[in-house]
Amino acid sequence: MKQSGKILCVLLAAVLLFTACLPGVTAAQIEEPADPPAGTSGQTPAEAAHLQFGTDGSFRILLLPDIQDGKTLSPITKQFIQTTVKAQQPDIIILTGDNIYGSWTKTPEGGEQGLRDVMEMLQEMYDEGYGAPVAITFGNHDDQSNDYAKEDQMKVMSEYACNLSIDEDLWVDGVHYTEALENCGTYNVPIYASDGSDNVKFNLWIFDSGSYAKDGNGGYDHVREKQLNWYRTTSEKLGNVNSITFQHIIMPEIYNSLEKTTYKPFGHTYNYHGTYYQLPATAKEGSILGESPACSEDNGGEYDALKAQGGVIACVSGHDHVNKYIVPNADPEFPMDWINVPTCGIASYGVTDYRGIRVIDLKESDTTTYETAFYTYEDVMGDDADFMLRYRFLSFLTELEYRLINVWMQLTNLLGISNLVA
After folding, report:
1. Among residues 276, 237, 257, 229, which one has the least CA distance to residue 415?
2. Are 370 and 360 in contact (CB under 8 A)?
3. Listed residue (278, 273, 249, 220) closest to 138, CA to CA
4. What stretches of 97-183 adopt beta strand conformation (E)?
5. Can you give the pTM of this predicted structure?
6. What is the phi/psi pair of residue 68, to 5°?
7. Is 246 helix (H, G, I), strand (E, B) or coil?
8. 349: closest CA among 278, 272, 411, 406?
9. Under a CB-based contact definition with an 8 Å cutoff, are residues 418 and 273 in contact?
């Protein structure tokens, strides 16, 4: 070793000895911070995208609920989605689960093929300049009967540049989370101020509400406590800004905002634990209750967590393919709207007249409210007679499934049995 090297070593040792003698300094305090995951800047994809209100103060959300197709995406569904997206020019596209139908894809290979069909459509629109970044969560059918885990589906999604979705286990402040959260696909999408600053003006919560109950009671799952702990912490970091939640399975508290009624044969009334419900008079124009809201039989505490944090102006869900409603929450201490969006595809049960896509518009000047519109196949493609002929034929075939479900619900109504279907 050269003399200069020896001198350097002596000086370094002295510095280390001095540092170690300082009061209150521990090894943990002088460790280098953990590196962010490879290929990242320490930000989630949603943060890095830095979505912001437009120069006119607007921000548009477009919802694609329950596409629920098999190994290949129906050309009719695809054309409808592409045409609507091109006309609406959204700032973000959100898929609220059942993006594929696991029972139809059957195998992991089939599931991946079906998922890539959806993702390639979204990426194509993004590349051509009329699409938008995409936030996705999961439903109960994505991983059903195909051995294709949601975590594996999320890895495929992450290959596409348009994707904002993450497996939340990989992210907390840009580093790997040491305690896994339940479910897969719980994260937030901040919307920044129109001036290009890092001032978060609004937030979109994306929750994976799971698939089926883990205790074997045959019901649906729900957002779980570790997810809610993450939500509370993240909401505090954001300053509890106003927000909207998006998930697949609705919360049980929806029934507190429906109107109790008596049994009406073949009316839009449904039995939930011995009580009949219908839409209240406060429901927004155009609302339809086509089936009993299929919530979890267990209450996971999500409603109470959202209410405690405050600022949530709407809770959006899919799952129920023939429910198209906006119902104001009946709790005066938690003023927000319940929004359920019906299926946008034709591969599964639905009603021909109102399969479609909902758009939600926000304004930077007033984030306490929103505007919304719903677009059916007829609204968007009504001038294309050939398209509509094919659509009505295929939709009729899958609408028959709903008609059978509705007969079953009316029978259970008559017998006083709860209408929940899992």
Report:
1. 276
2. yes
3. 249
4. 134-136
5. 0.88
6. 45, 50
7. strand
8. 406
9. yes
Radius of gyration of the chain from its Cα atoms, rounded to whole angstroms: 24
Coil, helix or strand at residue 32: coil
Q: For strands 323-328 and 288-289, give the pairing.
A: antiparallel
Average pLDDT, the chain: 87
The two beta strands, 337-340 and 323-328, are antiparallel
**Structural domains of the chain sorted by starting position, each given as residue range(s) with its CATH number in brackets:** 36-415 (3.60.21.10)
CA separation for the pair 73, 139 (Å, rounded): 17
Pull the structure tokens for residue 189.
């999408």
Burial of 19 (0-12, 13-18, 19+ CB in 10 A): exposed
Contact 324, 288 (CB under 8 A): yes
Closest residue by Cα to residue 350 from 394, 410, 293: 394
Side chain identity, residue 199: N
Which position has the token pair 């419900």? 277
Q: CA-to-CA distance for 164 and 158, rounded, in angstroms? A: 8
Residues 340-383 pLDDT 10s: 999 999 999 999 999 999 999 999 999 999 999 999 999 999 99
- Dihedral over alpha carbons 104, 106, 108, 112 (to 10 degrees): -20
The Cα–Cα gap between 417 and 422 comes to 14
Give dist(CA 280, CA 224) in Å, integer: 29
Cα 412 from Cα 420, distance rounded (Å)? 10
Rounded CA separation 183/18 (Å): 48
